[in-house]
Structures are given as structure tokens and as C-alpha cells.
Amino acid sequence: MKACCFTGHRPKKFPWGENEGDVRCVALKSKIKFAAEDLIVRRGFGKFISGMAQGTDMICAEIILTLKKIYPQIRLECAVPNCAFGKSWRADKTQRFEEILERADIVTYVTKSEIYRKRDLMLRNAYMVDASDFVLAVYIEGQKGGTKNTLDYARRKNKEILLIEP
To answer: How many C-beta atoms surround the C-beta of residue 135 within 10 A?
Structure first.
């Protein structure tokens, strides 16, 4: 089954921050949904992997869960960096995270660590790219950080990439 993973920025790098009702975020969600549906319908993709970070990852996971109502054959895998991930977030963020995990088809804890380690984020990103044929990235050109590192890794692995600028 062909797989696509998602990578992208967290809310602090978006011009709209955490306001997902902002017209720019609504437009971004529409672009992601269109791209994912194209992968399903035209290219036969059946599995989507989210790293479950705040921002892009959770937005993409929720879009896939919505698309499952139309395309019940598709699968959502949540690749969680470690067992501590998400536990220290605000209650509303933790609730959103847990609701996505409950609805996912597969939940993979990339490491079994009970403490938060940045290294686990890099291992999660490598896991997602290695398990995918395609990378859909929400990326602001020139930004440093995990998204850029994931894209660099995907390029070294010769993965097909779609960049969507927010």
C-alpha cells in the first residue's frame, strides 16, 4: 500500500498562530485536503502518517480522518515520538491529540521512552519518511528546524515531495 507522510510547521511559525479559523489557515486546510484526495483517487495511496505534533501534523491527521468517511479504505497511522509526547500540553491540545489517537487505525510509538527527548522527534521523522513513498510538507522556504531537517532527509532518500507554502 502506497503511503504518504506529513511534515510541517507548528503554530508559532504560522502567520495566524493557533487561530485555525483564520482565512489563511482555512485555505491551507483546503489545499491539504485537495492534495490528499488527489493522492487517494488518482494515485492509489492508502496510508497516511502523521507525526502528531501541534500544527500541521494534527491538522493533516484530522483531514485524513474526515476523508475516511468518503474513502473508508484509507488508513491513518499516528507516529508518536515517545510515550511522554503530548502529556505536558495544555488540556485542550492534549484532548485533541488523544481524540486523534483514538480514531487512528495504527498508533506507533517510535521509542518507548517515558521522558521527552528531542532525539525522539528526529527518530520519528526518519521513521515516517522511511515508511512513506511521498512526503506532503507545509513549509515556509528558508525556515530552519524539524520540517527542514525532515525534508532534507526525504530528499536524501529520493522521496517524492509536495511543498505547500502556508
So the answer is: 23
The span from the CA of 35 to the CA of 6, in Å, is 11
Q: What is the pLDDT of residues 98-125, one digit of tens each?
A: 999 999 999 999 999 999 899 999 999 9
For 54, the domain range is: 2-164
- d(C-alpha 68, C-alpha 123), whole Å: 27
pTM over 0.85: yes
Q: Got the DSSP string for 88-142?
A: TS-HHHHHHHHHHHHH-SEEEESS--SS--HHHHHHHHHHHHHT-SEEEEE--TT
How distant is the alpha carbon of residue 87 from its chain centre? 18
List pLDDT tens digits, range 21-51: 999 999 999 999 999 999 999 999 999 999 9
The total domain count for the chain is 1
Instruction: Write the CB contacts of 102 (distance below 8 Å, at least 6 apart in sequence).
Output: none
Give the CA count within 13 Å in the CB-facing half-sphere of 5. 24
> Which CATH number fits the domain that encloses residue 47?
3.40.50.450
Residue 27, Cβ neighbours under 10 Å: how many? Answer: 11
Cα 35 from chain centroid (whole Å): 13
Q: What would the grid cell of residue 22 be? A: 483564520
